[in-house]
């Protein structure tokens, strides 16, 4: 095992990923803030001052540079920039500029997300994405943001996992505004597709050159899961196969298919959307898990599909998600074949408060990234989710995704790098996974990294 190495291409971008509402704190004019105070979060917590990145960004950027990280993905919060209908908060804009300038001063590349699920309360109260002026008002906000922050981003993410707020908020009734309607889900997704196309155009119109002197790179961070039938025989197996197809085409093909063709299909709407076709300069891949579609005769209201079961022999995370590293490889290859655009992994990570699974998870997933590059996919960078522990939406603070631990209940909000934070530093320094790093942090990962375990 000694002396083995999986080398990454020169200039590979090594970063970490976050979202505004999940780390900044103080997002009091937002729909999520109200939702939290209505007691909707499973562990009873509210985002509150969160990790106070809003005030402690300088310290966090220092830590990133000490650790040798090269890039950072962050978001901006519309509810801070436009806390009331039509009232722009200059101080919030100036704060974001300071944060972005500080990233530059630390020589960190910037990946900026314009929309990561959270809306201003005033907008939510007008109907959220169902409001007829929704796209126009979102564009008013992004016009301000793109003009103000134009010089900073190396990568622009117009929308983060747009199908998630559409499905969780308007179909499953789990996220604000807790609606349950396929019609609303389709309508909202159609609007988000339009919003993406308009933002793609806006950014290119406004920003001629990114920090590297080339035109800016604009895309979407898309949620990809590796969805497969469980593998039963007989009618149950047939149901699993059909449902796996339905979910694959509903999720990935649904969104990506619309971007590929520039046309909306049921349930997202009908007809061509100007500017939508080919509106990715790069593909943003968020990958966490495999989902096995298992038939269950008791789950009538869920189309007899159990998503949550995990096949024997497969490890789970504290979120209950299946750990399946080759799913990342297959996702990257599918995205590459489909779009032939540079790919950035905009999220990949694990909830693990004791850091007992993370080093192995990270190594085995990175080995699959390496494998995809070797097989021809143009993967340019990897953003680990997340830099610090964060507010994990409906789960609250109890799920710990950070390379760096922060206890939200600690008045000092002390930042404490977990072992995997150091392991990530060593990988970045070597620009490779080496057998020495593996041996030091996760010897159990050998077969999954250098061996044949995940070559499937
Ligand atoms: C996502 C969300 C993140 C989550 C992360 C872990 O894109 O899914 O962007 O906000 O926190 O994925 O669940």
CATH class membership: Alpha Beta
| Total DSSP helices | 15
Q: Give, in order, the helices and strands.
A: EEHHHEHHEHHEHHEHEEEEHEHEEEHEHH
Q: Structural class, please?
A: alpha/beta
Architecture blueprint of SSEs:
Layout: E1 5-7, E2 13-17, H1 20-23, H2 31-37, H3 53-67, E3 71-75, H4 78-81, H5 90-105, E4 109-115, H6 121-125, H7 134-149, E5 155-160, H8 163-170, H9 182-206, E6 217-229, H10 234-261, E7 263-264, E8 271-272, E9 283-295, E10 305-306, H11 326-339, E11 343-347, H12 358-374, E12 379-385, E13 404-405, E14 416-417, H13 419-430, E15 432-434, H14 435-441, H15 446-449
Parallel strand pairs: 2-3, 2-12, 3-4, 4-5, 5-6, 6-9, 9-11, 11-12
Antiparallel strand pairs: 1-15, 7-8, 9-10, 13-14
Helix pairs in contact: 3-5, 7-9, 8-9, 11-12
This protein binds D-gluconic acid.
D-gluconic acid is lined by residues 19, 22, 160-161, 223, 286, 347, 385, 392, 401.
């Amino acid at each position: 095992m000694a002396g083995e190495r999986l080398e990454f291409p020169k200039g590979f971008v090594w970063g970490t990923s976050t979202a505004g509402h999940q780390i900044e704190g103080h997002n009091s004019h937002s729909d999520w803030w109200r939702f939290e105070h209505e007691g909707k979060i499973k562990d009873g917590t509210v985002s509150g001052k969160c990790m106070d990145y809003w005030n402690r960004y300088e310290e966090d950027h220092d830590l990133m540079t000490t650790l040798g990280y090269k890039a950072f993905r962050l978001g901006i919060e519309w509810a801070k920039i436009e806390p009331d209908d039509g009232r722009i908060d200059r101080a919030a804009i100036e704060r974001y500029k300071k944060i972005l300038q500080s990233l530059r001063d630390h020589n960190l590349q910037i990946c900026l997300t314009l929309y990561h699920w959270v809306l201003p309360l005033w907008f939510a109260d007008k109907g959220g994405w169902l409001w007829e002026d929704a796209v126009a008002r979102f564009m008013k906000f992004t016009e301000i943001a793109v003009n103000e922050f134009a010089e900073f981003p190396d990568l622009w993410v117009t929308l983060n996992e747009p199908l998630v707020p559409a499905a969780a908020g308007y179909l499953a009734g789990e996220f604000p505004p807790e609606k349950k309607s396929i019609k609303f889900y389709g309508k909202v997704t159609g609007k988000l597709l339009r919003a993406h196309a308009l933002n793609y155009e806006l950014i290119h119109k406004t920003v001629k050159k990114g920090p590297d002197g080339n035109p800016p790179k604009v895309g979407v961070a898309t949620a990809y899961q590796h969805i497969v039938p469980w593998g039963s025989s007989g009618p149950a197996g047939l149901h699993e196969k059909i449902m796996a197809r339905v979910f694959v085409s509903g999720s990935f093909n649904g969104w990506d298919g619309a971007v590929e063709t520039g046309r909306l299909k049921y349930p997202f709407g009908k007809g061509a959307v100007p500017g939508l076709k080919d509106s990715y300069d790069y593909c943003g891949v968020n990958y966490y898990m495999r989902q096995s579609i298992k038939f269950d005769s008791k789950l009538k209201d869920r189309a007899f599909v159990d998503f949550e079961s995990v096949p024997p022999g497969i490890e789970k995370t504290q979120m209950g998600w299946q750990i399946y590293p080759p799913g990342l490889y297959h996702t990257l290859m599918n995205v590459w074949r489909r779009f032939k655009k540079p790919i950035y992994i905009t999220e990949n990570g694990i909830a693990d408060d004791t850091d007992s699974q993370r080093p192995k998870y990270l190594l085995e997933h990175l080995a699959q990234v390496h494998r995809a590059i070797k097989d021809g996919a143009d993967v340019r960078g990897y953003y680990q989710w997340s830099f610090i522990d964060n507010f994990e939406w409906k789960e609250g603070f109890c799920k710990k995704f950070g390379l760096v631990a922060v206890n939200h209940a600690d008045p000092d909000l002390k930042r404490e790098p977990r072992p995997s934070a150091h392991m990530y530093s060593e990988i970045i320094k070597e620009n490779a996974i080496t057998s020495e790093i593996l041996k030091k942090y996760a010897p159990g990962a050998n077969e999954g990294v250098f061996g044949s375990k995940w070559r499937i």
